[in-house]
């Protein structure tokens, strides 16, 4: 399970980097052309937060077993 979380984390970091690269900063974040990238950035950040929760859970689970 940890391996899948690492793979998903790598994909999310890649997606976040891609979306940050594709944003047109001169148009602003609320522009219509930037809307898909802003949604992608938000979902990548939410996914990374969820991955951090899973990593914390795995760490706590290992400490409880000891």
What does this structure look like?
- The protein is elongated, with a radius of gyration of 16 Å.
- It has helices at residues 2-22, 35-65.
- Helix content is 79%, strand content 0%.
- With 66 residues, the protein is an all-alpha fold.
Keywords:
single chain; mainly alpha; 2 helices; about 70 residues; about 0% strand
Which residues sit in consecutive blocks of at least 5 with pLDDT less than 50? none
| Helix and strand run | HH
- Indicate the percent of residues in helices: over 70%
Question: How large is the radius of gyration?
Answer: 16 Å
What is the count of β-strands? 0
The termini sit apart by 20 Å
Strand content: under 5%
Topology:
Layout lengths: L1 H21 L12 H31 L1
Entry summary:
The protein is built from 2 helices and no strands. The chain has 66 residues and is mainly alpha-helical.
